[in-house]
């Protein structure tokens, strides 16, 4: 027969496991929501998923610091409308969560279909190395770092090479330079890992 102390220890262990499972679900939903908002050009909603001091770094264009600057960057991207596709599927999560500290790190893959009717249509794929923080009781993106592995014209395919990365966004300058310099396919790039082994 377990002692009261042993039963209490079991309850505490089960509570910790339940919290970890709930945190995992919330983080998957958070990252998935980001992808859906980007799909439809809902830039304000996407920006609201970031922590107050959250950062965004995409395609080697530099780092934008703070939710207001993330919103400013996203607001410079083309509007969503008729004839536009922005699909950004969030796939293959590897999450490491410290529930007690309210912090987490995650690695994701995004498969992209981007196009404007009559102008261009592209496939793309990127690795996200992100961090998260629990802020005012909700998980938020502390840093989103999208490392582009390839962009290519949909009708030519990646076997013919790739589209060079656009290194700036018109009308807005980053707060910090890129974390590291790289070029996408056909150059080989490996996004830094937040973990050595699972």
Automatic annotation (TrEMBL):
| Top-level taxon | Bacteria
- Cross-referenced SUPFAM superfamilies: NTF2-like
What are the residue boundaries of the SnoaL-like domain, all occurrences included?
21-144
Q: What is this protein called?
A: Nuclear transport factor 2 family protein
What is the source species?
Aurantiacibacter rhizosphaerae
């Amino acid at each position: 027969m377990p002692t009261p102390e042993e039963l209490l220890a079991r309850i505490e262990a089960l509570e910790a496991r339940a919290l970890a499972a709930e945190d995992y679900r919330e983080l998957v939903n958070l990252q998935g929501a980001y992808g859906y908002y980007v799909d439809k050009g809902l830039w304000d909603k996407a920006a609201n998923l970031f922590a107050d001091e959250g950062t965004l770094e995409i395609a080697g264009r530099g780092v934008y610091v703070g939710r207001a600057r993330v919103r400013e960057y996203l607001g410079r991207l083309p509007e969503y409308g008729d004839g536009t596709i922005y699909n950004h599927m969030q796939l293959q999560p590897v999450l490491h969560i410290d529930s007690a500290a309210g912090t987490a790190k995650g690695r994701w893959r995004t498969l992209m279909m981007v196009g404007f009717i009559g102008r261009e249509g592209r496939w793309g794929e990127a690795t996200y190395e992100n961090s998260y923080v629990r802020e005012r009781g909700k998980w938020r993106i502390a840093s989103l770092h999208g490392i582009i592995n390839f962009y290519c014209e949909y009708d030519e395919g990646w076997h013919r090479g790739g589209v060079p990365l656009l290194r700036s966004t018109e009308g807005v300058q980053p707060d910090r330079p890129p974390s590291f310099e790289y070029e996408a396919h056909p150059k080989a790039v490996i996004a830094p890992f937040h973990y050595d082994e699972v």
